Amino acid sequence: MPEDNVKVAVRVRPFNSREKDRGAKLIIQMNGNTTTIKNPEEPNEEPRKFAFDYSYWSHDGFTEQEDGLLVPVKGSNYADQPRVFEELGRGVLSNAWEGYNSCLFAYGQTGSGKSFSMVGYGCNKGIVPIFCDQLFVGISQKKDEGTKTEFEVTFSMLEIYNEQVRDLLNPSSNKKGGLKVREHPKKGFYVEALKQTPVQSYQEIEDRMDEGTRNRTVAATQMNATSSRAHTIVGIKFTQKSINDAGQEMAKTAVCNLVDLAGSERAESTGATGDRLKEGAAINQSLSSLGNCIAALADKAKGKNVKIPYRDSVLTKLLKNALGGNSKTIMIAALSPADINFEETLSTLRYADRAKQIKNAAVVNEDPTEKLIRELKEENQRLMDALKKGGVVALSSGDDDDDRQQMTEEVNSTEKEALRKELEEEMQARLRDTEAEMEEMKKTWEEKLKQAQESAGHDAEKEKKEARKSKPHMYNLNMDSQLSGMIVYILDQSLYNVGNNKADHTPDIILNGLSIQKEHAKITNEGNKVFVEKSSPEAKLLVNGEPITSKQELDHNDRIMFGSNHLYVFQHPVLYNADPKKYTVVTYEMAQEEIAQKSGFDMSAKDSTEDKLLQQDLIDLIPMVEEANAMSEELNRRVKFEIKMLSATARGLQHGRTEVFVKMVNLDHDLEYLWDREKFIRRKYLMQEMYQNFQEGEDWQLPDEKDPFTESPDTEVFIGSSHVYLQSIAYLIETKESVIISDYQGQQQGLMDIEVVPCNSSGKELSEADDVFVDDPKEMIGRSLNFVVKIKSAMGIPTKYKDVYCKYKIFLDKEDNITDKKGGSISLEFNHRKYFNFDVATSQLVDYLVKSTLTIQVWGVQQTKEASKAQKKPLTEATPDGNINQDSQMTADKAAYMFQLAALKTQKEQLEKRISYFEKMLNVAERYNKERIETAVIRQVLSAHSLKVADKAISRIPYDNGGYVTYSGGEHSSGGGGNDPKKSSAVCTLM
């Protein structure tokens, strides 16, 4: 029966330095095993509470010792690394000794502290290294006690990126498309040809982990992977061989998977972008699939009959045993405490809450060695027989999630043949695997160790570690802190040439990837001074965020950017030792923030959550845009990308935060598109795949519909928006305006004729002659309110747009009101009319009309230069009799001039109206000897779009005793308090 073999722990990390500098606020509290999260935007909202097996408070209450070890202060609740291991990792270790499979995985957004819990840093070792160390401590103790048991430990390390598996201990085996994931009827899913390295000490494991991490770093830097979106699985296979009472050799085997999941990325609240291109294998598909499996397993634990979608991703295949099979499993949910990350932290808590409902049935993996060998031989023979007969055998593990043998009966003949070939290929692969496994079982443990040591060779990394203490050097920075510092170059020679190794050219320091020239830079060591300079004019080289043009001396902790994505920190022990207090620790975020600051973006400390999110987006996107531009240039895609920050108003919205967009410019056709953050990131990863194919000499050209550098010709773009005040409707007064259409940069794109006219209940429009306006909008509450919105026409919209239409929402509309599509002319006649009826006007509706504007967005489809020119009329046009019709000489330049003239005329009329309203207001104030006017009155007069609305505001200039001046455009009289100027209570002084 399934047991409660799945434990869930949550752990909250401290604020990082950037969050501290920006005044981040705490949103997490812990009381025992209960975790509480508070929404910073809703102070009156009830906090949300979650209960887990373990809740670790690692936010504060600690002190840092001289060696960097973080220890709890007396009386604090700080959960340090040893405590987390004792309560979580110790259980994994015990399971391994007992012969149970175990899995421990960490989930959370990028930067939430997953890697700190799993791997740690410095002397603050995480669960993985402590587990490995303690495993060998236990083995040593057993051997000291004189046990006759033979212990075998093998280590593997793989990475899953974009549904492709890479062996981090054997990079040469990583072919295009990654390693294959196969299925065994008993072992379940496994990675074909994954290197399993025999180890006999913790130091050997540590060396292999460093080797795997360096391989990750090189791959990430050269564009083959992006570490923050990759999953890393460390596999420890622990076998204990002993002789039982019957004289049989018994093998007790435990497989421990320690998984550092990719960061769960923040998704924008705007939702899907409608992008025609999605990532080929969906970067986040594995995390989504993992969530689906966890949800389905939680339902299954409640007794529901559900299918578990393990096959939806590589990650869930490899974690199948951990999630719902023969394993004892622990999940760590890493939490950010910062208010900026509320939504992501809440999502992580919900994810973990589902996971704690899963139940597993774990069993001890202990069998006689002879039995294991016999089963391998039987499996081998069965596969060989089937292949000789040209048939296939069932390869599924028999679970209810899938049965591919049954699938062959449910598809047509073509699909059936393709599936048969796939199964045959898998059978052949399994045959190779069983033969290899049988050969391995024939070898003694000593032979396996000797072979592993011979293949490892000499490790120069130890020498580098020592050299860094006394010699100048530089190390890499990566957005994944675990990958920072993994690539080190010692600079003790007099000259180092930096460049790529293409065309039989081998520089001293090889940097392959984007924008790296054959001869890129020179680093010279002149005594205790180190200099850097460009080797070619085309080379991109930044020092501390600024491009350099001449030879420059480097100081300790200087940041150097080679090309578009090689970021390094220079360190000089001699300079550091001379004044240690002068220097601080450099992080990837600090370096990118510096580059953003030097590029003209405001990165100073901000108080609001919106500003913090904006700055974080800039830090994330600026290097990505640089990479995208470099790829476009190298692939000759004729596309350029630029960062744009758009407020809600610039995007044609009334509410919302300023967001980072990326403008894509097609240089050949002069077309511009705005991509939101998520769309650009998706496209950028597809660009990386294209660029990787280009680097590997494969066919990288794609048709336009699959090319991430292109947009569909039918893509609709935002042209601009117009804003119309609705205050007049609250007074039952019509508004007739020619309003300017402004794009996201505030530039005029045309003029729009719009009317908003009050109506009676039967839909008849009311005019000034009906004299039905009210003294105060509040009088409309509870009454029927009806009006019509007319979008009559637009002029001046550039002819490069076709299929132009307008859309808008009124009050609580969920769907857009949309006009017909027009195009091909300077003047567009929409003739749109929409009737709005509110049987009972609520206070919210009236407040909306008084304070809000009607935002009308204008959208259209761009045309190429050629298509746009083809639509323009010629300078002269012949009449049927061959004569020139002078009236038809409407050139584009003339149309543009007429539009500019009309726009200036509209602006002039609006300004003149406002001036006349102000003059009238001042005349009233002077006539009654008023020295001050309420700002509310001034604001109403300033925003008035008709004389009646302005007069209404002027007529209610209040007095201290509640009286007011009544004004009807001619004579004035006092109401209530009379016209005694001493009783005035206005708050704006007249100078």
Question: Would you write up a description of this structure?
Answer:
32% of the residues lie in helices and 26% in strands. It is an alpha+beta fold. The strands form twelve sheets. Strands 1, 5, 8, 11, 12, 15, 16, 17, 18 and 19 form a ten-stranded mixed β-sheet that branches. A hairpin with a 5-residue loop joins β16 and β17. α23 (935-943) runs antiparallel to α24. The longest helix has 36 residues, at 892-927. The protein is elongated, with a radius of gyration of 36 Å. The termini are far apart. Residues 267-273, 395-409, 873-896 and 958-991 have low confidence and may be disordered. It holds the Pfam family Kinesin. Keywords: ATP-binding, Coiled coil, Membrane, Mitochondrion, Motor protein, Nucleotide-binding, Transport. InterPro entries: C2_domain_sf, FHA_dom, Kinesin-like_KIF1-typ, Kinesin_motor_dom, Kinesin_motor_dom_sf, P-loop_NTPase, SMAD_FHA_dom_sf. Belongs to the TRAFAC class myosin-kinesin ATPase superfamily. Kinesin family. ATP binds at residues 108-115.
What is shown here, in short?
The protein is an alpha+beta fold.
General shape: elongated
- In round numbers, the mean pLDDT is 80
Q: In which range does the helix fraction lie?
A: 25-40%
Tally of helical runs: 24
Global structural class? alpha+beta
- Strand elements, count: 46
Low-confidence stretches: 267-273, 395-409, 873-896, 958-991
Indicate the proportion of strand residues.
Answer: 25-35%
Distance between the termini: 87 Å
Radius of gyration: 36 Å
Report the biggest beta sheet as strand number plus sense, adding barrel if it closes: 10 strands, mixed
